[in-house]
Design brief:
Elements: H1 3-64, H2 70-81, H3 88-93, H4 95-103, H5 111-114, H6 118-146
Length: about 150
């Protein structure tokens, strides 16, 4: 076998080994980057959950001392509960806020509320008062559970 053929074979093996080694390190760096991104994302999710829990506790306490009405507390808590990981049983215990939020979801808020005529606003106020009175006891029990949400 000619020497040049052997040298060419060894050179090919060396080049292919170099390429394989380069690709191996690229893959390793990519995995490290992905792991770091996943950890950052998990930390962000956990931070968002903690912020949501803190807000829920504050709103629940405010509701219990009548600093905020049930309708407003329900809309806010219902939204924030979407960020909190709760099992089904725990979620059912605070379902009052979900129910109130669903029952008043059709009522405009903020600028849209201000744009309504007086008669329509009065009608919506009556609806809100009716829903609040219907869920008052259940909502207070739910707020008691949420004020110490861990």
């Amino acid at each position: 076998m000619p020497v040049w053929l052997l040298a060419l074979g060894l050179l090919s093996i060396a080049v292919l080994s170099g390429i394989a080694l380069y690709l191996h390190f690229q893959l390793h760096r990519q995995r490290v980057r992905q792991r770091a991104q996943a950890e950052e994302m998990q930390a962000a999710v956990e931070k968002k959950q903690e912020e949501a829990k803190t807000s829920i506790r504050l709103i629940a306490r405010a509701y219990l001392v009548d600093d905020v009405e049930l309708a407003e507390a329900s809309v806010r808590i219902h939204h924030l509960l979407g960020y909190v990981d709760m099992d089904e049983e725990a979620r059912n215990e605070v379902r009052a806020f979900d129910e109130v939020a669903k029952r008043i979801a059709h009522i405009p808020m903020l600028e849209q509320w201000r744009a309504l005529d007086r008669e329509t606003r009065d009608h919506h106020r009556e609806t809100i008062a009716q829903v609040e009175s219907e869920f008052e006891d259940f909502a207070r029990k739910s707020a008691e559970r949420l004020k110490d949400l861990a």
